Automatic annotation (TrEMBL):
Residues 2-110 form the Beta-lactamase hydrolase-like protein phosphatase-like domain. Residues 151-270 form the FAD/NAD(P)-binding domain. Gene3D superfamilies: FAD/NAD(P)-binding domain, Protein tyrosine phosphatase superfamily. It comes from the Bacteria. InterPro entries: BLH_phosphatase-like, FAD/NAD-bd_sf, FAD/NAD-binding_dom, Prot-tyrosine_phosphatase-like, Sulphide_quinone_reductase. This is Bifunctional protein tyrosine phosphatase family protein/NAD(P)/FAD-dependent oxidoreductase. NCBIfam families: TIGR01244 family sulfur transferase (TIGR01244). SUPFAM superfamilies: FAD/NAD(P)-binding domain. It holds the Pfam family BLH_phosphatase. It comes from Massilia solisilvae.
């Protein structure tokens, strides 16, 4: 645990885990303050987990969240007021500790000289020059004062961000490019379904962020707070400013756990789990192994979500284990989806229905999970009838696998880049922003109507790479994205229905049908998912090696698709 001491009464730290509370108690801390909103990261425990551990250890725990880089003067005052009432010493934490330090600095602005605030923060390892400029500028960040400027800035160091940066550098090795991301770890998220099914070790899905940053790119380890597209500038946490000539936006999406009443308080216990969190995928497998009978519920929220097949993958792998263990007939498996159909591309539904019948799964469409009572083990769904009438349906459970509602990150939704739904407003073919010609987006945060999968990002990366370099005068022609996405539906351990499709649900197989028929369960497709795709991800996609994803190029005089 990385603790930074600000004063005798207050320390700050990056994200802590529930297990860290015991160490904090040993070190003499008596209170913790969480300044990070739930749902910012897929490796982030919810505050309810931290609070429960703190209370058990006799520590106070308080939730005072602030968006990264958007700490207000009022939040600073609230932080100071809260700190005054807490037993000391206290520890405040967020993703990196910067928000907590900023809130402390703002709370002290009227009582400590700025020089002392800067000095104390600097000794703790935090640079507050941007905050000082904000204070001196009557609460506004002077965008004209930039700490850095690059030809290309990429927002987000996930699958899309690293892939597109690597693709640009593969084409133009001397390109001045920076990647902005505050995370310490890069995750191979497609592997978490296999972890929850007992076919993959969770440790294989994580590497340090530093090891994935492509050679030649600068890593700015910070979070983006706001966009100033009219000035070609970004505001980072700590009120720092970075300028760009071309901007690529790919920060992923946000898991909205708090939309479901009671879920945050019970997630990770009482039989409630989700493969959408790194630390809970192993818990899914524990629950599957221990369940010998009873009712298992699997949920799917309204679209769009990251990997539309993931809710079913968890269900099929669990059912397969129960069948192999001889207890399938003792488990009542039920699938509750907010949608109207099992899968959005009809060609793959017949194969999936064979497994639904084989596993005796009860299908319940137009059912959206709205509440979870963990101790009572009851899930509440809002069911919309075909005639539009609604009713609440309560279902008891022994195991509940939840896929949370998902939306664009907060700093995207409130930005000038967003469309009415909150996603980055881009042309679905060129991936260029519809208003700002020097801004592109790819991956989960874009508004293009493709499936939000790693396969989609892998195909989008060379398109965006080419178009950015063309905008800089380093390439010719215009690349187009056709909406390709892939969803390897793990229907049992050892077999996969390999769904591949483009815009409009058009089936788009990568292999000849005699090798892999994607509409039928395939052993070879399982080997592809388990053995080939992970190294292809780490050593291919993230290294700028564009195997099987060469973009379509057209003459720039051809009208762009919309």
């Amino acid at each position: 645990m990385d603790i930074h001491y600000l004063t005798a009464e207050l320390s700050v730290a990056p994200q802590i885990q529930a297990i860290d509370i015991a160490t904090l108690k040993q070190k003499g801390f008596r209170a913790v303050i969480c300044n990070r909103p739930d749902g910012e990261g897929n490796d982030q425990p919810l505050f309810a987990e931290i609070e429960q551990a703190a209370r058990a250890a006799g520590l106070e725990a308080h939730y005072l969240p602030a968006e990264s880089g958007k700490v207000t003067d009022q939040q600073g005052r609230d932080f100071g007021a809260l700190l005054a009432t807490l037993p000391k010493p206290a520890l405040a934490f967020c993703r990196t500790g910067m928000r907590s330090t900023t809130m402390w600095a703002l709370s002290q602005a009227g009582s400590l000289p700025l020089a002392q605030i800067i000095e104390k923060a600097s000794r703790a390892g935090y640079d507050l020059k941007g905050v000082v400029r904000r204070i001196a500028n009557n609460g506004r960040t002077p965008v004209e004062v930039a700490e850095a400027e690059h030809e290309v800035v990429v927002v987000g160091g996930g699958a899309a961000g690293i892939a597109v940066a690597s693709s640009m550098l593969a084409r133009s090795p001397g390109l001045d490019i920076a990647i902005i991301d505050p995370a310490d770890v890069h995750y191979y998220q497609p592997g978490w379904t296999l972890v929850g099914g007992g076919a993959f070790k969770v440790e294989r899905t994580a590497r340090t962020m530093g090891s994935t940053i492509p050679q030649g790119a600068k890593w700015i380890k910070a979070a983006v707070a706001a966009f100033e597209p009219e000035r070609n500038a970004l505001i980072l946490d700590g009120c720092r400013v970075v300028k760009y000539k071309q901007l690529v936006v790919c920060p992923g999406l946000k898991l909205d756990w708090h939309t479901i009443d009671g879920l945050a308080e019970t997630l990770g216990q009482n039989g409630v789990t989700s493969n959408y969190l790194y630390h809970l995928a192993p818990y899914t497998w524990q629950l599957v192994q221990s369940l010998r009978g009873g009712r298992a519920l699997f949920t799917q929220p309204p679209m769009p979500i990251k990997c539309a097949g993931a809710p079913q993958k968890a269900m099929y792998l669990s059912a397969d284990h129960w069948r192999r263990s001889g207890v399938l007939e003792e488990v009542d498996i039920r699938f509750y989806s907010a949608g109207d159909v099992l899968f959005g591309v009809n060609d793959y539904v017949p194969a999936l229905m064979e497994y639904v019948r084989s596993y005796m799964i009860g299908l319940n469409f137009r059912h959206n999970l709205v509440a979870v009572d963990g101790p009572a083990r009851v899930a509440t769904f809002r069911h919309i009838e075909k005639d539009g009438t609604e009713q609440l349906v309560k279902e008891p459970f022994d195991m509940l696998h939840v896929v949370p509602p998902q939306k664009a990150p907060d700093f995207i939704r409130v930005s000038p880049l967003a469309d009415a739904a909150g996603w980055v407003d881009i042309d679905q073919a060129t991936m260029r922003h519809k208003t700002y010609a020097n801004i592109y987006a790819l991956g989960d945060a874009g508004s293009s109507p493709n499936a939000k999968t790693a396969a989609a990002a892998r195909t989008q990366a060379p398109v965006v790479a080419h178009n950015v370099l063309a905008a800089l005068g380093q390439a010719k022609g215009e690349a187009r994205y056709n909406g390709y996405g892939s969803c390897p539906l793990t229907v049992e351990r050892g077999k996969i229905v390999l769904a591949e499709f483009t815009y409009g649900g058009k089936v788009a197989p990568s292999f000849p049908r005699w090798l892999i028929d994607g509409t039928r369960p395939s052993r070879l497709a399982w080997l592809l998912k388990e053995r080939i795709l992970p190294p292809l991800y780490w050593e291919g996609m993230l290294k700028g090696r564009e195997w099987l994803v060469h973009p379509e190029l057209v003459d720039v005089s051809t009208p762009s698709a919309t």
